[in-house]
Amino acid sequence: MRMRVFLVLSLMIVEAFAYRYRYYRYSKWKPRDVPECMSPGLVAQFEDNPKLKEYIIERHKGLSNSARINFKKYNKYPAIENFLKSLGNEPSIGPSGQEIFAPDEVIGTTVENRKIYLVKIFKKDMHKRTRYSKRMRKPAILIDGTLKAREWISPAVVLYFINQLKNNPQQDPAIEKLVDMYDWYFIPVANPDGYVYTYTTDPCWRKNRRQTSSDPVCFGVDLNRNFGYDDKTWDPSVGGSTDPCNYNGYAGTGPFTEEETKAVMKVMNRKGVNFVAYFSFQSYSQIWAYPWGYKKEALPDAKDLRKAAQVGADAIFAKSKRIYRVNQSARIPEFGLIAGASDDYARGGANIKYSYTIALRDTGEKKFFLPASEITPNGEEMLEGVKAFANYIYKPRRKYYYYNKW
């Protein structure tokens, strides 16, 4: 009996100590526990808006140290890799009883020797091969995240999508229907070197991590200025920079100089895949933007893109009462004119009709530094938006006959 009382008391003491340690650890969290922001633009705002530092610290608290994925937290890259590689181990079973597959594929390797992953989610019975043209193939949608390293909400929402479409935790037939209609391709972390750098060294870092000059302090190309298919769609003078030491906007010495942008471009142009839509999830501003970004001239079918995007934005509003503005990129004041963006290339270079950049939450209060509590609601509303969009543009003429014309 005494031994039992002793054991119970010992356990209570250990638990009390553990709780006290956790409380101390987080209640005494100091800015020095978080890598220091080195963005000239953001640091200049700290004096006028000291809460920005608090938001950076708060976001860092939501970073999981586990090797297992946690969809309610931000995850380090090894945990993301482990999750993506595990997806292909076995198919999941949808509400219909059919199998859903999600193999991973390495599509590139960075200068710091990290792998860039692509995940495809599909059903085999809806994936019959055909010897006919692209117009006869099942339509596909491509979604990427983390072109800009500091935007942690971007990979978190892409991972949320992957989990919903592959594992369908709520066994929702409407989610499974998306896999019936489309093959889904995801690049959750297009910029793994930059992403890792944001949680180890500089939480405000935007670019990749290739050394760009003989000057030892000059690193990184802005990947969302490194796409293009001519001297107008890639042009550092339009929203970018030719300075290899520029903190934010260095566009490289030409289009696709970077392994990361090459990897995304090759997927967009993959033979045998009928991409009908492309989304780049970025942040912040709550905007659903379509090409062009490098000029204000409208696409001939801009009304189609705007209408489809508005269907998605309306679904988001119905879900969460969040307003996502829909407009051409070049006509959005927060964006200005931008050459070298991925959505312009997807439309003009890869001929993907419905090409968009979606700037996720928020509208500017916390900027890139959303707490982990925002991951699930942002994922839920975006899933509703993309689901409504995908249902709207789906245009089967007959079984296994689809088209992508404008």
In short:
By secondary structure, the chain is of the alpha/beta class. 35% of the residues lie in helices and 14% in strands. The longest helix has 26 residues, at 2-27.
Structure write-up:
By secondary structure, the chain is α/β, with parallel strands linked by helices. It is built from 11 helices and 12 strands. The strands form 3 sheets. The protein has an 8-stranded mixed sheet with strand order 5-6-8-7-9-12-10-11, sandwiched between helices. A two-stranded parallel sheet has the order 1-2. The longest helix is centred in the N-terminal third of the chain and has 26 residues, at 2-27. It starts with a helix and ends in a 13-residue tail after the last helix. Residues 5-9, 11-32, 130-135 and 397-406 have low confidence and may be disordered. Belongs to the peptidase M14 family. One of its GO terms (cellular component) is extracellular space. This is Peptidase M14 domain-containing protein. Residues 1-18 form the signal peptide.
How far apart, in Å, are the first and last alpha carbons? 81 Å
> How much of the sequence is in beta strands?
5-15%
Number of helices: 11
The low-pLDDT segments are 5-9, 11-32, 130-135, 397-406
